[in-house]
Structure formats: structure tokens, C-alpha cells
Amino acid sequence: MDVAVVGDPESVGRRAAVLVLQGLGEDPALVLGVATGSSPVSTYRALAEARREGTDFSRVRVVALDEYVGLPETDPRSYHAFVWREIAQPLRIPRDNVLVPDGNAPDPEAACAAFEEALRAWGGTGIQLLGIGRNGHVGFNEPGSALDSRTRRSALSETTRADNARFFPRPEDVPAYCLTQGVGTIAEARTIVLVASGPHKAAAVAAAVEGPVTEACPASFLQRHRDATMVLDPAAAAGLAGHRVSEPTRHRRSGPA
Ligand code: F6R
Q: What are phi and psi of 89, to 5 degrees?
């Protein structure tokens, strides 16, 4: 895994966007895996700027990591709404090119299987953008998630519900369940770019980069991925002992898949 430490959260977004744009240059029909939440917003802003300057995203396919269970797609806090508002609309990506797990499906298991099948039919994820939870989660794979897990219905941890309460009127309004790509599903992305900013992410980042590869920190799977980069601001990198600021080079491929 490569670790790049850049000056501030906006620079994190710009650096991650450069990696996405490189991938888009190689494949105009890139399958782009997207995270929701606050961390990647600066990346989406930088990509939208590239679109305004002429980059064509019209053939890009966008795949979300997760969705709350039981929140209508029209609810602005749903991840369907987020992906449309923050990514597909600004980048002019057609609606048919957007894939989000169906958190309102009457049969969640069938919905998860259909999601995996649709992703497979698109040829899998080319570049996956990730955030990281304070507890080391990726997507909504909470600590204890198997590193070979697949898309499934899962419970949100109390830490995650508390963290996401900022988007809801009352803490008890945060949905308790979600559909999430599994760690094993995410790990099949050919390239992974994880972005993190702020001191509240420092412990999770340190565990993911320098701790053991373990289900206790789902993001630690990145250590075994052959093309993964973390882009951090100095506060998020503060817990790292063995990594220093790195230049914006094309990240190396290292280690087994
Ligand atoms: C959301 C997701 C989560 C977030 C994580 C960090 O789709 O995949 O793993 O990336 O909870 O959230 P923020 O960026 O809001 O701190």
C-alpha cells in the first residue's frame, strides 16, 4: 500500500481526483466505486471541476458501497440521493450508469445477490474510492466483518450510528441496518484509493496501515491489496510511525493481491 500525506483536506481531494482521472484516461468507461460521507466530497468537487474543464464522464459507471435499510431513495440522507446529488449529476453521468444497493428491497438477500451480479456484468470495479470509519470500517463493514465477506445486510455499530447522527434530526433516527458491499467484494477492485482527513481518523488509519491484518480493523485488508493508496492530511496521518509525506507519483504495485 502507498501512503501519500498532503497539506489539507482539499489537497486530499485533488490528489485522489488525479488518480481517478488517470484511470479515466486509461478507460473512458471506467467503473468507479464511490463512498459517501464527508471524506470524499472534496474529491467529487475536484472531479466536477475537471468536468467543467472538459473531461467527459458520460461513459463512467458509478457503483456505491452501501445504502441504509428502510430510508426512501428520495430521502436526501439516502445514499441513492447522495450519489445522484454529489456525483452523477455534477459529472453528468446517466442514471442507467449508477448502481446502488437497494435498501428498500423486500428481499435484502436477493437484492444483494442482484447487486453483485450487476457489478460483475459491468466487469467489476476499476477504481474504488473509500473513506474510513473511526472504528476502521470500510463501506459499512464494521469490526468483525470477515475479510472475504460479500454484499449483505448488516447492522451498523453504535460508533457508526453516533458518527452519522450529524445527518439526522435525532440520534435514534439513524437507520440501524444497511446493505453493504463486503470486504471481499471491495477487495476485488483493481485499484483502491482511500481518503481520510482529521485527527478523529488518526487511530483507525494507523491500525489499518501499520497494525495486523485483521477483521477487527476491516480497512487493514488494504495491506494485502496490490494497488492501494491512502491519501491523508497530516492530522489523519499523525498516528503513523513508518510513513512520511510522499510525492504525487503513480503508486507502485506491491505485494500479493
Ligand atoms: C459510506 C462509507 C463509510 C464512510 C465512513 C467515513 O459510503 O462507505 O465507510 O466512508 O463512515 O465517513 P466520513 O467520511 O463521513 O467520515
A: -65, -55
Q: What are the pocket residues of ligand 1 if the criterion is a CB atom closer than 6 Å to any ligand atom?
A: 35-39, 65-66, 131-133, 137-139
DSSP label of 79: H
Total length of the chain: 257
pLDDT in tens, 10-22: 999 999 999 999 9
Q: How far is ligand 1, taken at its centre, from the CA of residue 80, in Å?
A: 14
Which residues belong to the active site?
A: 66, 135, 137, 142
Residue 222: the pLDDT is 98
Cell of 203: 487511530
Angle (CA) 18-56-230 rounded to 5° is 20
Q: What are the boundaries of each domain within the chain?
A: 2-249
- Residue whose CB lies within 8 A of the most ligand 1 atoms, among 62, 137, 154, 186, for a mutation test: 137
pTM score > 0.85 for this model?
yes
Q: For the domain 2-249, what is the CATH code?
A: 3.40.50.1360
